[in-house]
Each structure stands twice: as C-alpha cells, then as structure tokens.
C-alpha cells in the first residue's frame, strides 16, 4: 500500500496514521515530524524550516520534496508507505508524480480527511503530544488519564510551538489556498476516498479501513 493522507491542520492525520501504519505494517512518513526532529536536533534544515513553521507557512519545496523522495527510496518503503502532510501543494504533487513514475511506483490510495474549519482551531489548540513516544492527546476530546502525562509511557506531554490560535488560523488559510486543490488533483486520478473526520476517532478509523480494504 502506498498511501497519501490529506487533510487540514487538526483533521486527525497523525492520530489516524498511528493506527493505519500499525494495521498495514508500513512506515509513517510525516514531513512535519521530520522537520520538528530537525528543529530539536538544531540541524541547518531545522533552523530554516522553523522560520516558516513558526509563521504557519509552508517550508519551501526545495527543502521538502527531496527529503520525501530520498525517504521513499529506503528499503523499508519497498513494502509500501504512508505520507502524512506531503504533498501540500500542486507543485509538490507533480514532483512526486514525476519521481514515482521514474521509479515505477504507483500510489494506491489518497485518504482525504474532511473537517469543517470551525472545529479545526480547537482541535489543534487543545492538542498535547508525548515528549517520549509521540502519542497524541487532546485536553477535551482525547484526554490522558492523568493531566500532562502520557497513558502509554508516563512521559511528559507538551504543546507544539505552532498550536496557538494565531498560527493555527494562518495554517488553515494556507491549507485552503494551497493544499485543498489537491483533492481535485487526486479525484481526477480516481484514487481518492473522502472521509468524514468529524466523527469519533474510532469511527473515522473504521471508515479509513473500509476505504483501504483489508489487503496488506
Ligand atoms: P504538520 O505537522 O503536517 O501539521 P498539519 O498539517 O498542520 O497537521 P497537524 O499535525 O496539525 O494535524 P493532524 O491532521 O495531524 O491532526 P492530529 O491527528 O494531530 O505540519 C506542520 C508544519 O510543517 C506546516 O505548517 C509547514 O510549515 C511544515 N510542513 C509540513 N509538511 C510540509 C510540506 N509537505 N511542505 C511544506 N511545509 C510542510 O489531531 C489534532 C488534535 O485533534 C489532537 O489533539 C487529536 O487528539 C484530536 N483529534 C483527532 N481526531 C479527532 C476526532 N475524530 N475527534 C476529536 N478529536 C480528534
Ligand atoms: Mg500531524
Ligand atoms: Zn508516551
């Protein structure tokens, strides 16, 4: 399976990705996670990416596309992969297509998680993430058993730097302007499944599995 997860900030891409990669046993490639790891490690890429991420803007394509295509050429992606947060504009999608064509690889599914704009800000602002294992919570919709502490590993929970109301609103606007057109792009290719992301986390997952099928 070679899957793209599409959807606005706070749609539940990361939350659903965790279940999908476990069920289908494929690597989870999240450009946002890769950039955040680089920021934490203080790399040159991290320093450049941070300037854009803190403003809610897209990191330039030159810093993003090669990162993903290099990752796809690694051995563990031979069995399939799931891209979360990439592509994010038509130019990235076209560059990905060119790369995949040359590598003789075909995408199998695009899962488009749809959530109304009015819900997205509270989803992102209430998000908390485990420092140790990366598990994602929400202070209201998916609260940890003990405030500020991860259920899985007892790690400390933190809030992402770009999860404040102002930056989230900017990220949503960038999504509407630059990323949403990709739904049309992949509809034309006939590989998109639109999923209602306003249901419970479990029901969204069931709909995604129904769209992907039980095949591995
Ligand atoms: P990225 O990390 O990809 O962030 P995003 O797209 O803004 O999406 P989020 O991670 O905020 O949301 P999500 O859909 O994963 O939601 P989650 O499952 O966590 O990108 C960050 C930045 O990196 C970008 O702004 C850009 O600068 C840069 N970047 C990344 N990729 C790039 C690219 N390709 N090109 C250029 N720049 C790039 O859920 C959110 C919350 O809601 C959680 O608290 C969760 O518990 C809760 N929740 C989830 N599902 C439900 C549900 N069904 N009901 C109730 N609550 C729910
Ligand atoms: Mg995410
Ligand atoms: Zn944890």
Automatic annotation (TrEMBL):
Under catalytic activity, the entry for this protein gives: AMP + ATP = 2 ADP
List of residues binding Zn(2+): 130, 133, 150, 153
Classify the source by domain of life. Answer: Bacteria
The encoding gene: adk
List GO terms (cellular component aspect): cytoplasm
The yes or no answer to whether the keyword Repressor is present is no
**UniProt EC number:** 2.7.4.3
Q: Where is this region: LID?
A: 126-163
| Name of the protein this chain belongs to | Adenylate kinase
Q: Which UniProt keywords apply?
A: ATP-binding, Cytoplasm, Kinase, Metal-binding, Nucleotide biosynthesis, Nucleotide-binding, Transferase, Zinc
What's in the domain note?
Consists of three domains, a large central CORE domain and two small peripheral domains, NMPbind and LID, which undergo movements during catalysis. The LID domain closes over the site of phosphoryl transfer upon ATP binding. Assembling and dissambling the active center during each catalytic cycle provides an effective means to prevent ATP hydrolysis. Some bacteria have evolved a zinc-coordinating structure that stabilizes the LID domain.
Residue ranges of every copy of the Adenylate kinase active site lid domain listed in the record: 127-162
Q: Where does ATP bind?
A: 10-15, 127, 136-137, 199
């Amino acid at each position: 399976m070679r899957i793209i997860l599409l959807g606005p900030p706070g749609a539940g891409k990361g939350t659903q990705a965790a279940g999908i990669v476990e069920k289908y046993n494929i690597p989870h490639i999240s450009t946002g996670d890769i950039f955040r790891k680089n920021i934490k490690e203080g790399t040159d890429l991290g320093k450049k990416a941070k300037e854009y991420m803190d403003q809610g803007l897209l990191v330039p394509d030159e810093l993003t596309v090669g990162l993903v295509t290099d990752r796809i050429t690694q051995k563990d992606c031979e069995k399939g992969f799931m891209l979360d947060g990439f592509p994010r504009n038509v130019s990235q999608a076209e560059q990905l297509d060119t790369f995949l064509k040359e590598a003789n690889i075909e995408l199998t599914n695009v899962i488009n998680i749809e959530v109304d704009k009015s819900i997205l800000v509270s989803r992102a602002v209430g998000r908390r993430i485990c420092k140790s294992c990366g598990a994602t919570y929400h202070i209201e919709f998916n609260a940890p058993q003990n405030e500020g502490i991860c259920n899985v590993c007892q790690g400390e929970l933190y809030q992402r730097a770009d999860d404040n109301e102002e930056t989230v609103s900017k990220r949503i606007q960038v999504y509407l302007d630059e990323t949403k057109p990709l739904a049309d792009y992949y509809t034309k290719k006939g590989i998109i499944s639109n999923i209602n992301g306003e249901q419970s986390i479990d029901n969204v997952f069931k709909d995604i599995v129904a769209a992907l099928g039980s095949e591995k």
